[in-house]
């Protein structure tokens, strides 16, 4: 797409919808919420389509919108949970979830879930979405140095969490 082209939202949707749902799924932790997040990101992009200065940057804009929508959803969840008087019943995972992931992957995902949100976002964008430090910095609105330090801290924390898990099992 050249800078003079308009954004083809249908093509953007066809090409990047699944990738954005996967990204959101890792950030918000359930598929239905992830789909809602991505839908909101696409709607926001549609509403602000005229303001998009560089149509070639549409994917980056969309990715940033997904990250921001995910953060908003998590904030809303925290607020709701803080005000609940009774605990919500635990929902069992789908019966086939054990088949979908090997045990070591589940271990890593459980460890990633224990990281602070910023560290989790950096790792998901780096290792799941395979973004560069510059792209991650743009998506999260932080500096490249912050991306590096958050990634380093996250990897150290993951190693500690994983080791503690092994120590408690053995």
UniProtKB/TrEMBL annotation:
InterPro entries: RNA_pol_sigma-70-like, RNA_pol_sigma-70_dom, RNA_pol_sigma-E_actinobac, RNA_pol_sigma70_r2, RNA_pol_sigma70_r4_t2, RNA_pol_sigma_r2, RNA_pol_sigma_r3/r4-like, WH-like_DNA-bd_sf. GO terms for biological process: DNA-templated transcription initiation. CDD domains: Sigma70_r4. The keyword Transmembrane helix does not apply. GO terms for molecular function: DNA binding; sigma factor activity. Signal peptide: none annotated. Pfam families: Sigma70_r2, Sigma70_r4_2. Residues 106-158 form the RNA polymerase sigma factor 70 region 4 type domain. SUPFAM superfamilies: Sigma2 domain of RNA polymerase sigma factors, Sigma3 and sigma4 domains of RNA polymerase sigma factors. Keywords: DNA-binding, Sigma factor, Transcription, Transcription regulation. It comes from the Bacteria. Residues 12-78 form the RNA polymerase sigma-70 region domain. Belongs to the sigma-70 factor family. ECF subfamily. This is SigE family RNA polymerase sigma factor. It comes from Flexivirga caeni.
